Structure formats: C-alpha cells, structure tokens
Amino acid sequence: xxxxxxxxxxxxxxxxxxxxxxxxxxxxxxxxxxxxxxxxxxxxxxxxxxxxxxxxxxxxxxxxxxxxxxxxxxxxxxxxxxxxxxxxxxxxxxxxxxxxxxxxxxxxxxxxxxxxxxxxxxxxxxxxxxxxxxxxxxxxxxxxxxxxxxxxxxxxxxxxxxxxxxxxxxxxxxxxxxxxxxxxxxxxxxxxxxxxxxxxxxxxxxxxxxxxxxxxxxxxxxxxxxxxxxxxxxxxxxxxxxxxxxxxxxxxxxxxxxxxxxxxxxxxxxxxxxxxxxxxxxxxxxxxxxx
Length: 291
Fold this sequence. Notes:
Blueprint: H1 4-14, H2 18-27, H3 32-41, H4 47-50, E1 57-65, E2 68-76, H5 79-82, H6 85-100, H7 106-110, E3 113-114, E4 117-118, H8 119-130, E5 135-143, E6 148-155, E7 160-167, H9 171-184, H10 196-212, H11 217-235, E8 241-242, E9 245-249, H12 250-256, E10 260-268, H13 280-289
Antiparallel strand pairs: 1-2, 2-5, 3-4, 6-7, 7-10, 8-9
C-alpha cells in the first residue's frame, strides 16, 4: 500500500502529477529514488533537476588570505535569521578560525577554539540566543600554488558561493569561471571526475527513454552515446558553453587566457535538504481546534 504522504513527497520532488507519482511508486515498491528514475524514463518529469532544489536557509561564504581559502555553509531555519548580524558574525568567526587552522573534517573543525569557546560551543550559544536551530553544515579549505589564482563569487547575498583555482590564468579569469559556475550549476570540472556508477545509471535511463519513444534496442543504444555526451556537457564545467560567450566552452575560454581549471567548489545553501513546510492557515486552525 502506497501512502498519500509518499505520493506527496514524490510529487514535490518530481513535479509530476499525483496519479503518475502513485503509478511510479507502485511500480518500484515505494522506493523514491527509483520512482524518480521511472518517471524520467517515461518522459513524465525532469525530476533529476527538481530533486536537488533548494531547501534550508542560511549563508554560504568564502574567505581568502594569501595562498589559502575557505568556503563554508552555515544553516538557519529562516531567511530572516540568515540576514541577522548575529548570524553573520558567527559565519565570519567560523571563516577566520578555519583559515588559521589545519583541519579537513567537520568533526575536527567543530573542536577548533574561538574567542568564545569551540566552534561547536559557539553554535550552541548562538542557537540559544537567536532562538533558531543553527548548524555548520560543510566546508572546504584550499591551498593554492603561487602560479595559481583564486576566483571567488558570492551570489544573492550568500545563497550561492563558488571558489575556483586556476593554473596560469589571473584572478579576473578565475572569478569569471566562478560566476559561470554559480549560474550553470556544474557538478564536476571534467568528465573523468564523474563516478562510473553515475554514468551507468544515466545510460540506463537514457536507453529506457529511447525505447519508450518507440526506438528499437540497437538504435536506442546508438542514441545513448549522443545523449550521454549532452549529459556530460550539462554537468561538467569545462564542457559547458561559457555563459558570457556561448561560442566557446568554459574550458576553451580558460585555455585562451593561458590557464587551466584545477578546482571548482560550489555551495548552494540548503542543496539537497528538506525544507520545513509552513502552512499558517492550517497551523491557526489546529490551534483553534485544540482550544
């Protein structure tokens, strides 16, 4: 028996109709991820893109100093708190602390000392003071060579942060690449970085799509080759058309400026997280009925 709440969850993630969502879940015994692929195979939904939609609030931020840079994401429950000076101060403290430290895991980072206790203790203090649950979700610290340049870009006041490292090109080019990545959402720099499992899964979906379009299996196999190249072009930074000049790819734009992309880190606030639903009319009715 497929529950209404499961159908609702799939509908929100896929954008497909209730009936199609119910059919998908019945076909895969209630597995949400498999149901999303089922809908994609049938051409019913663009679920792959919608499944990653933005959920939680907070800030993504970057700080660079000499050859070191840190990119972080800190979350709050509401956008109102994310704009609060107290919250911004917390983000700045975490950035400064990480920049001076040599840690690579979140567990290590939480134990780092600030002027107000460890990062973990500071988050607990701020949570109590602000009145919302706050969390330090992720970070990356990057050290570059003297021959490399950092490119950093913050979009929408901290909704998206992108840090790039380019060999041989200047900071302006590196920032242009970071701005492009903010807009076009690449997941990897080059196709060699894409996990084989992810590629195989995509090939299976593309083949089923072609077969469901009425193509014979052998023709469907050939169509997959072309479509998988399009898949790489969508998710790999170097292969994307440069947002400021679509006549060149990002890879060629960087190459034309004497450089090579070494690193790209893109944090989008709340990416892949569930967002708490607010239904104020329902909340008020519940309060009235409970009195």
